[in-house]
Amino acid sequence: MTPSQQIFQNLRTYMNEQIVGQSALVDRLLIALLANGHLLVEGAPGLAKTKVIKVLSQAIESLAHRIQFTPDLLPSDITGSDVYRPETGTFYFQKGPIFHNLILADEINRAPAKVQSALLEAMGERQITVGNTTYQLPQLFTVMATQNPIENEGTYRLPEAQLDRFLMYVIINHPDIEAERRILKIVQGEEKQIPVPQFPKIKEKTIFEARQEVLAIPMAPALEEYLIQFIMATRDPAKYDDEIARLLRYGASPRGTIAWDICARANAWLNGHETVLPSDVTDLVHDVLRHRIILSFEARSEHVSADDVLDALLKRVPMP
What we know:
Layout: H1 3-18, H2 23-35, E1 39-42, H3 49-59, E2 64-68, H4 76-79, E3 80-85, E4 90-95, E5 102-106, H5 113-125, E6 127-130, E7 133-136, E8 142-147, H6 160-163, E9 168-171, H7 177-191, H8 204-216, H9 221-235, H10 242-247, E10 248-250, H11 254-270, H12 278-282, H13 285-289, E11 294-295, H14 297-301, H15 306-316
Parallel strand pairs: 1-8, 1-9, 2-5, 5-8
Antiparallel strand pairs: 3-4, 6-7, 10-11
Helix pairs in contact: 1-2, 2-11, 8-11, 9-11
């Protein structure tokens, strides 16, 4: 195990002590950080979506910012804008919150399309343009956007083409009874102002070194071929099953192939594996692809989910 792997193992343990019952969310956030991508998280209120970013930001040398998306938000509220300076008669650029390292885009589906596009363009291009000037975003830049599945009134659904910009789409649920007991103990300790152990700050250099190690993790050619064949199966499902073909309208884009590959390598690295194992690939199939396939009208009318279709493909695409 390399020094960077040990640091991230310690970080994972620390975050799971602070964020009880959401180990999958912690792992996905760390994978997104290692893969230099962004995360979309869907879950009911009160499931520590905000806290997980706060805990991560406290553990690494970074600037974090929470943006509460609302219907009256403007794109300039995210990107920043040119401000007039009357004493000199000139304009200067006032940076917006997008120029932080870790961004929590809270309830992204509550803002209109033009505001969502401003954020998603920054995520994809790693830059913003105001007027005739382009501004580069920080090298360490990760967005975790959240959306609430309970309420639909006053929300703006993210288009499928925009969803593709997210590395993973994670769905989280309520914790089990044991986790609920631990959560209560933690909150009681906070109310009593019992000090929480501080995690040694991780330098940006360590994160960039870890990313290079992730890219160097080998994947067997047969496993890489499986990944490609699975993506092709989402585009031509009739080759495997006519019923799946009836439920699928569009398959995953090449961006899905790239995202699945880097996420599998990051997952293997985070788990201390010397090479990518089949489990490192299949564990992430839902998170990487559920927002990249588009179901048919028949599937929606029959209440078939993207996860159901992916489960069916997992049974039919042979693993080497």
